[in-house]
Structure formats: C-alpha cells, structure tokens
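User: Run a structure prediction on this.
Assistant: Running it now.
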Amino acid sequence: MAVNHEDSHESVDVGAVDPKSKRTLYYALTSTSAFILYSFLVLGSVGKCFELEGSSNLGLTFTYDLQMVQSFFELRDQEQLACYSDFLKMWDLIYAVIYASMYSFWIKYLIDKKAMLFLVPILAMVADWSENFIEVVLINRYLESQSISGSLVSLGSTINTAKWVFLCLTYLIILYGIATKVKSIFTSRKTEIELN
C-alpha cells in the first residue's frame, strides 16, 4: 500500500514560537525595563548624598586595598558614610536582584537547553550582597573607632573581584546566546525556504 507523502512538509512549523519562550522573553523585557528605570530614577538620586567627584564607589572597582578604603572613608563625613551604608543595605541590594533577574531571564531565553547557566548572574548577586555586607561592617567600625580592618578589606576585595568575574561570564554567555539565536533564526528561515 502506497503512502502519500504529498505536501507532508506543511506539518512542519519552522517559525513556531514556544509559549514558554514567549513568557521568558516577556520577563526578560520587563526586567530590562525595570533595570533601566531603577538605574536612572532611583540609584542616580539616592547615591548623590555620598558621591564625590573623582571618587568612585568601592564596589564599582575590580579590586581595592586598604589605602583605597581609607581614602574613600576619609573624604566623606559621618553623614555621607551613613548614607552610603544605607545605600548598600537597601538600594544596592534591590539593584542586584533586578540585574540578576534580568540577566537570568535573558540567558534562559537565549540558551534554554543550558538552563543552569542562569545561575551565573545569581552568583554575581550573592557576591554583590556579601561584599556590601563587608563594606557596611567596615563603615560601622570606622565610625565607631576610626579603624579599618585589613583582613576585612582583603576579603571584601576578593568577593568584589569574584562578582565582576561572574558578571563578565554573564556577558559572555549572553553574547554567545545572541549569536546562537541569530544563527538559529537564519537556519530556520533557510529550512523554511527549502521546504517551500
């Protein structure tokens, strides 16, 4: 008995989009919007109370040492350091949650089959939180006794470096995901043209 293969390729929906993938894309776009809005509307305003021209936040450097921390503290009065401490304990923690969510959703959308890679930005978030905690301890000790623990500075710097390593890995993963997604789109279109 002959089997009719005529137009069998019509059942192949090359351009179909997985509903789960659509939902992940929605979360990625939403978290990206939240990241942009939070960065410009919140961080920019709440950070003004401790910012000084030519002196960047410790967490924004790849690494720091005792001299850098001492200089950072000495350039600011108690009110500015208290403001910086509050920034680290609340606003920067929220920021870490937002960027970790954004990067995780993009990785999940771009590289769904390697889902565990979304843990990389979460590790960056945990490192960010840990480094913030150490900075708060350093500030409290400095305000109480004008002393700075070299061992705590070293630990904080190491964790901060780890955070930046995780973030760099995150960017590489996302770039790889974008390249893979673009290649997949071109391959799908080529297959669709061949089927038609």
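Residues 20-195 form one domain.
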